[in-house]
Every structure is written in C-alpha cells, then in structure tokens.
Amino acid sequence: MNQPSPAIVAQNAVRRLPRWALLLLCIAYIVPGFVGRDPWRGADMTAYGYMLELAQGNTPWLDPLLVGLAPETDGLLPYWLGAWSMQLAPSWLSPEFAVRLPFMLLMALTLLSTWYGIYALARSSGAQPVAFAFGGEAQPADYARAMADGGLLALLACLGLAQPSHETTSYLTQLCCTAWIFYGLAAAPLHRILPLVSVLAGLAGMVLSGAPSLALLFALGGVVVCLCDPSTPEPDRARMRIFALGIAAMAAAAAVTAWGLDMWRWRLAWPQDNGKDWGSLARLLLWFTWPAWPLAFWTLWRWRKQILNRQLHRHLLLPLWFVLVSAVTALGTLPSDRALLLGLPALATLAAFALPTLRRSMSALIDWFTLLFFSVSAIAIWVIWISTQTGFPAKPAANVAKLARGFTPEFSALALAVALAASAAWCALVWWRTGRHRSAIWKSLVLPASGAALCWLLLTTLWMPMLDYARSDAPQMRKVAAAAGHPACMQMHGLERSQLAALQYHGKLRLVPLEGGNTACRWLVVAPQQPDKPVIAPPPDLTGWTLQHRIDRPTERGDILELYLPDAD
C-alpha cells in the first residue's frame, strides 16, 4: 500500500525567491575568503607550494615534489588547476590569487549542481505534495524550484562549509565532483545526455583528486537507486536500466584508472586508531552540519511511513546514501571534517524536504534562534574590530594583542563599506522576515543562510588582517629569513610540507635537505619535535652546529623553528 506524501503545499507557498537576492547571497558567500589574504597555513599553503613548483617547471607534472617530498594526498587535479591558472594568468595578477580563480569557479559549480540536483529530485513523483480535492496544490515545476531554493539555502547555512570551501585544496575539488555525481544521478529520469556527462566528469574528477573509493561507492549506490526507485514510470524503466548500466561501466573504468595511477590506498581505521574519540566526533557532526542535520532527521521522521513500507523513493534514498558514505568515511579517516564536507550537498537536500512538513512553531523557533545567534555573533565581530581600531572598549583589543603578538591593526575603507552594507542588508532581511511573509516554503532557511554569509563576510573583511596574521605563516617565516640575513638557501630538517612551502614563498629561500650535505647553504633550519605531533623525521645529528635563533609563531608559542650555523662560524 502506498502511503500518502506528508508534504502538503499550496501554490501560494512556492513563490519564487528573487533570483537577484539568491545570486547576491551566493556571491557574498563565495568571493570573501578568496581575496585579500596570503595562503593560510596547513593544507592551503601546502597545495600552493606544489602548484608553484609545477608552474615554475621545477617538478614533473605526474610526480610533483616539494623539496624532494611527494604530496600527502594522492590527487593531482587540484595542483594542475592551480598551476595552469598561474601560467595562464596575466602578469599583473598575483600568483596566490591566480590559483584561487578555478577554485572559486568550483565552489560556484558546487552550488549550481546542488540546486539542480534538488530540483530534479523534487520533480520525481514520489516527492510530490498531496493533491487537493478541489485543486490549488503546488505545481510540480514551481514546487521543485522552491525546494531547490530551500536546499541551496540549507547548504549555505552549514557552519562547516565556510573555511574548507575557500581553500585551494583537493577537498574543494572533491566537493564539486561529488555535487556533479549527485546531480547526474538525481537528474537521470529528466534528461538523457547531461546526467551521463555530469557523472562521468564527477567520477574522473574524484579519481584525479585522490578519492577513487568514494567515487566508486557513490556510483554504485546511484546504480541501485536507478534500478530500485518505485516512482519510476513503467515506460522509463528500460531507459533507467540502460543508464544504470552506463554508470556501472563508468565506475569500473574509474576503478581501473585509479589502479593504473596507483591511487588505491586503504586508510580506514577505527577512530581510536586515528587518535579520535567518540565525543569529539559527535561534536564535529553536530556543529559542522548545523543547521541541516536537525532538518534532515525531521525529513526522515516525517517520511518514516514510506521508509518502513519500503517505498524508498529516489528523493530520500539518493541523498541518504551520499550522507551515510560521507559520515562513515569521516569516522574512519583523517581529517574527519574534510570527509564530512562531501556529504553536505546531500544533507542539505534532505533538509529541504523537511520544509513542506514543518509546523509553524518549529519554523518560528528556527527563526528566533538564528536571529539571536547570528546577530550576537555579528555584534561581537563589530565590537572587537572597533576595539582594535579605537581602543574602546579596551579589553577586546588587549585580548587580541595577547593572542596575536606583534599584530598591528589595519584600516580599510573598502572593507568597512562592504561590512556596513552587509550589516544593513541583514537588518533589512530581519525586518522583512518578521513581517507578514509566512507563505514561502523556503522562508525558514533565509535567516540561517544569510546569517552564515553575514558572519563569514564580516570575518573576511573587518577581521581579515587579524585572520591573515593568525592563519598565515608569513610573520614567522619572514622573521626566519630576516634573522639569517635573507640568504639564498638553507638546509632544513624535520619541517612539515606546509612549513617548507611557506619558507620558500614568504622567506624567498631555496631549501635543501640536511642529509644532502650541501655546504654552500650555511644556515640550517630545524623544527624540533613536538610531543603532540607525529614524528616526521628522526632527530638530526647537530654535532658541529651552534643554535643561533629560536623563532616561534606569534599566535602559537609552541610552534618553533631553530636556526643553526656551523661551529666554525
């Protein structure tokens, strides 16, 4: 027996979200964070180091090396994209911004693919709202558009999306390719060619980005959905079987390609083996996917009758499979948040299907909580910025000076203007939302998405100098180069890949391994082993070397680099 849909939606509830407003929201989310900063320490700096080596022709394209070290991740596509962008960019464009251009495009394509994927799922017969006895229910195209708008807002509202989606790493490439696969599988009943092309591009991109196992799992799950979806009309079942066969063939080709490129790695382990505990993983799942996960659970609860009666329609089964694969991967791999990132488009899809079933009280609770949370956060960002600029109130500025030693506040009229405009837009949106605008189905996610975009924009405008000082390796590496008298080269030992890239970029140094015995490089830079970090290399034999300087990061005293000279000097 088919259970009725829990979605009851009238035509006046699927009013169009203004395209200009949605476009401005996406621009306000994507662009800040990519401009006006140095490469940030960690994965962002490491990726830039390999891209720069490739662009300058210092390392092979199929086997990139940074001071003799291969990348920790297997994917080559992100490095190629950044290097090609640097080579093609005009001379007046800085290299560190040039590498970000393709990744800005990838983020835009992620949002676009997610919107169209949700739109396609909402058009399926199993996702349609209940038909009214005398008409007036939402029309399929209008309903699907409103659901896609709500799903895109849910994705932008996810707290964990902000930083990883603005780094030039393989994780953003994998996120975009996952969205392509998701769209291709979702749109299979609606189109013939484009879904196949999208899945093919997504699988190839996932393999070349270092995630062949995830690509294979996503594709195989999509094959099952295409074959088992009960909402597929009988005339279309033969075409869906052919589509599923094509996806299976693509998955097999992707697996063979990954094997030929030697990209298969077994990295799964119990959380305890990776130094994790269940409590930290639970906290990560809660905040990283907020506020999409409560809505996703509400969707599963409201559609439980269909699920229990094995009516696993594609609008539920497909995103649920993507979320489960990402969640299990996050439990057994490092870094967990980057693995969880790939499930956000599908989680936002599940969150969107909660919108037609939300009670008015729950919608009001979401609005008030979001209003308080993001308004207080925005006010805090403004207060701390005013304090660093004027000295009043004094305590926030004193805390910044304590946490970021040596930081000098900077003033930017452009950043202030953008922040003021964003804050004014937030106030206008709150005024609109508290008015009589209760009919639109996507209304409950307008404040969460806009609040997340507001705080991200304020952080990357008003706070960008502070963030750049804290997140960049530039202050420490420039001190290292200055303390050594800006030599042409240095010997090194025990440095992480991000430190190697930062020294070469910020310090303008050529680094050579200590074991190479290059006596032309008088200075030696060593990273002492930290108790809480994995051992990179055994302690060096420093006989015949004299410690000259110990230079720490201004925002992390335990992160130290030591400079040595031979005893004869």
| Largest sheet geometry | 5 strands, mixed
Q: From the alpha carbons, calculate the radius of gyration and give it in angstroms.
A: 26 Å
Looking across the biggest beta sheet, what order are the strands in?
Answer: 2-1-3-5-4
The rough form would be described as globular
Task: Let me know the number of strands.
Answer: 5
Model regions low in confidence, pLDDT < 50 over at least 5 residues: none
Content-based structural category: mainly alpha
Tell me what you see in this structure.
The protein has 569 residues and is mainly alpha-helical. It has three domains: 100-355, no CATH class; 360-471, no CATH class; 474-566, D-Maltodextrin-Binding Protein, domain 2. The chain has 23 helices and five strands. It has helices spanning 19-30, 43-55, 77-88, 95-98, 101-123, 140-157, 170-186, 194-208, 212-228, 234-260, 278-288, 292-302, 304-308, 314-332, 336-341, 344-352, 360-390, 394-403, 413-433, 446-459, 464-471, 474-483, 497-506; strands spanning 489-493, 510-513, 524-526, 545-553, 556-566. It has a five-stranded mixed β-sheet, covered by helices on one side. Helix 23 links the parallel strand 1 and strand 2 (510-513). The longest helix has 31 residues, at 360-390. It is globular, with a radius of gyration of 26 Å. It starts with 18 loop residues before the first helix and ends with a strand.
Describe the structure concisely for a colleague.
With 569 residues, the chain is mainly alpha-helical.
Supply database-style keywords.
globular; single chain; 3 domains; 23 helices; mainly alpha; D-Maltodextrin-Binding Protein, domain 2; five-stranded mixed beta sheet; 569 residues
